Amino acid sequence: MKNSKYHFKFEDLKIYQKAMEFGEVVHKQTKCFPKEEQFGLTSQLRRASDSIALNIAEGSAGTDKQFHNYLGNAYHSLHECVSCSTKAFQRNYISQEINEANREYLVELAKMISSLRASISKRIRNK
Predict the structure, then answer these.
(1) For residue 88, how far is the Cα from the chain centroid?
(2) What structural domains and CATH numbers belong to the chain?
């Protein structure tokens, strides 16, 4: 966190920063979802998008093998976001442009997660 005098190493990770940014984008988008979706798609999309950054942060504190597994969980949450965003578009809660912007974020995050997982896998194999 930029304004805090206390700092955690995972906060320097670009992948974490991007995931945090996406969670905030989703939170803003879902504010205009219908009230009947409050405990449905709104909650699901918010939880899935937040889960990406949360898994990155939590996993970074463990061993390489643990971090690799948590990144896998983040990747699964990312795929859940793809489906939720598509549902939101199909239900006319978001526009095609917003859905495409979400997908662009998610493709970039997917590439970052895959790349980091590959790097960690290499480190694990070389130990």
Answers:
(1) 17
(2) 14-27+38-125 (1.20.1440.60)
